[in-house]
Specification:
The protein has helices at about 10-20, 40-45, 60-65, 80-90, 105-110, 135, 145-155, 185-190, 205-210, 245-255, 300-315, and strands at about 1-5, 25-35, 70, 90-95, 125, 140-145, 165-170, 195, 215-225, 230-240, 260-265, 280-285, 290-300. It is α/β, with parallel strands linked by helices. Helix 1 packs across helix 11 (about 300-315). The longest helix has 15 residues, at about 300-315. NADP nicotinamide-adenine-dinucleotide phosphate binds near residues 37 and 147.
């Protein structure tokens, strides 16, 4: 058994990481950390994940004594420091935050000065389905992609050679914003409501610019919906070469034929059908005007965060990619 720690296991993403690792047949969950809930049992804070461990204050030395690898589920910036402490002690790390997804230049444009730029060279972008699988297998540090970016990229990846212009319309559940409620994510703000946000530039567009070929004009418009878990990327794409509906569908079949976690389906997907799974359901078609419509539905906490992090960890540790995720 390989031993794994989850750092930030009191937050939404980290709590699910702990739940998945605890149920994993080849991994042993040896430490779960939190500051505000330190001293409480994880299964008291999150009964549904049934993790019978006590949350402890984060301490890199104590974690390194007990773990070969760690999943770090901190907000960006705080994550960089925690990842550095764990990498200095030789642990393999999957970081769920934005801190290691981008080049230093792109990161500092969208976020803030980087806290651990010396680690960027070894970090691999953790979306296996986008051609990163072999790099992830050899990596010591993997950056879990953003939830919006995961869905948008899975919808756009098969179209990358023909897309000229794409409007990415994201609809996301409130758990994507983390455990702490704000005035924007409070029940009263979200219930019976649809809230577009960050319409003039969401940070996740930087991941699309990085992963897709240059020259695709991108608009990225997220909407917060009154659902707790679930995320839909609806992409409206102007394509070169007037492809037929069959051409477009063939691109999706070719891209994902061998992908265990991506289902290419004949009708538009629904978020409820991927809830609490590591699956993405994708669909593409043409509208009457010849525009390509591409959809991807994921669970933001699973394929958009914790599930994908364990998928990456499986690859890094030489385990079957889907182990512990079914
Ligand atoms: N939620 C999603 O759908 C999703 C999807 C993809 C990626 N992510 C990324 O995954 C990471 C974790 O997200 P989450 O949704 O799990 O967030 P969360 O629910 O807010 O949890 C983050 C945890 O980090 C701990 N923490 C440590 N240092 C902190 C600091 N300086 N400031 C605030 N909190 C600190 C907090 O617990 P203590 O205070 O007890 O230590 C908190 O519980 C984030 O980087 C997020 O962007 C989230």
């Amino acid at each position: 058994m390989l031993s794994v720690a989850v750092v930030g296991a009191g937050g939404f993403g980290g709590a699910l990481c702990a739940g998945i690792v605890h149920g994993h047949p080849s991994l042993e969950l040896t430490a779960v950390t939190a500051r505000s809930d330190a001293g409480r049992r994880h299964d008291e804070v999150y009964p549904r994940y049934a993790v019978p461990l006590t949350l402890e204050e984060p301490d890199a030395d104590r974690i390194a004594e007990r773990a070969d690898a760690a999943l770090v589920a901190y907000p960006h910036r705080a994550a960089a420091q925690a990842v550095r402490d764990l990498r200095e002690r030789g642990l393999k790390v999957v970081d769920l935050s934005a801190d290691f997804r981008l080049s230093q230049e792109a990161y500092e444009r969208w976020y803030q000065p980087h806290e651990a730029p010396e680690l960027l060279g070894e970090a691999v972008y953790g979306l296996p389905e986008l051609g990163h699988r072999e790099e992830i297998r050899g990596a010591e540090l993997v950056a879990g992609p953003g939830c919006n970016s995961t869905a948008a990229l899975l919808a756009l990846w098969p179209l990358r050679d023909i897309a000229r212009d794409a409007v990415v319309d994201i609809k996301t559940g409130v758990s994507g914003a983390g455990r702490e409620a704000t005035s924007d994510t409070h029940f009263v703000s979200v219930a019976d409501n649809v809230n577009p946000y960050k319409t003039e530039g969401h940070r996740h567009v930087a991941e699309l610019q990085q992963e897709l070929p240059d020259g695709i004009r991108l608009s990225f418009v997220p909407h917060l919906l009154p659902i707790d878990q679930g995320l839909m990327a609806s992409c409206y794409v102007t394509a070169d070469g007037e492809p037929s509906r069959e051409d477009v569908q063939a691109l999706f079949e070719d891209a994902y034929r061998d992908e265990h976690f991506v289902d290419v389906i004949a009708d538009p997907p629904r978020t409820g059908d991927v809830r609490a799974t590591n699956r993405a359901r994708v669909h593409a078609t043409l509208d009457e005007g010849g525009r390509v419509l591409a959809f991807a539905a994921i669970d933001n906490l699973w394929k958009g965060a914790a599930g994908q992090a364990v998928q990456d960890l499986n690859l890094m540790l030489g385990l079957p990619e889907q182990e512990g995720l079914e």
